[in-house]
Amino acid sequence: MEQTAFDDPAYRAAAVDLLGVLAYGELTAFERMAEDAKLAPTLDDKAELAALATTEFGHFQRLRDRLVQLGVDPMDAMRPFVTPLDAFHDHTAPSDWLEGLVKAYVGDGLANDFYREIASFVDAGTRALVLDVFADSGQAEFVVDRVRAAIDEDPKLGGRLALWGRRLVGEALSQAQRIAADRDPLAALLAGSVDRPGLDLAAIGRMFTRLTEAHTARMTALGLQA
User: Fold this and answer.
1) CA–CA dist 12, 76 (Å, integer)
2) What letter would DSSP give residue 9?
3) Of 63, 61, 56, residue with least CA distance to 36
4) φ and ψ at residue 137, rounded to 5 degrees
5) Segment 104-153, tens digit of pLDDT
6) Using an 8 Å Cβ cutoff, are 99 and 59 in contact?
7) From CA 148, how far away is CA 144, in angstroms rounded?
8) How many other CB atoms are there within 10 angstroms of residue 115's CB atom?
């Protein structure tokens, strides 16, 4: 079944695009978490974030290996996404440790939800890999614990971090939509074909409702107004 799917050049290009954007996303997540660890207020926090960064790199390796398995150069697959993803991260650079945690949980979380939605249109093997890579590896518990503790200590932080979270969701949605629209194979995957149904307007509406609800749940978990 999977081999039949990859025999279709249009499908293959879409799957490679999906794996490429996710691989570069995980590579940059590793890089950002390792950098943010320098801002950690305690040694324990530094060690925890470094461990999460290592997990992100492991995810990158699995996606890279899948591309190699498909006979694709991982660097070639990631290259189209370097400029848009780097621009997003430059535009949403956190000013402190707490903003970095909220970005990792809220901003990255929403982008990951969007790519999970796309993964529902790919073959079973690729879909299973994507869902496994995005399974929570302890990041949520760590971030929620640290952010809630900081707000309990200084309630005024709540307003600033809530505004930051709202900005992140707007930027993350725009970035994900722009990437999907700019890459014809991904756009075609969402639109569907004769033998692979895609999203109609109603389905797109339901997808964005799910994305918004998941974002609201994350903000609530942090003790922030969405």
Assistant:
1) 14
2) H
3) 56
4) -110, 25
5) 899 888 888 888 888 888 889 999 999 999 887 678 889 999 999 999 99
6) no
7) 6
8) 19
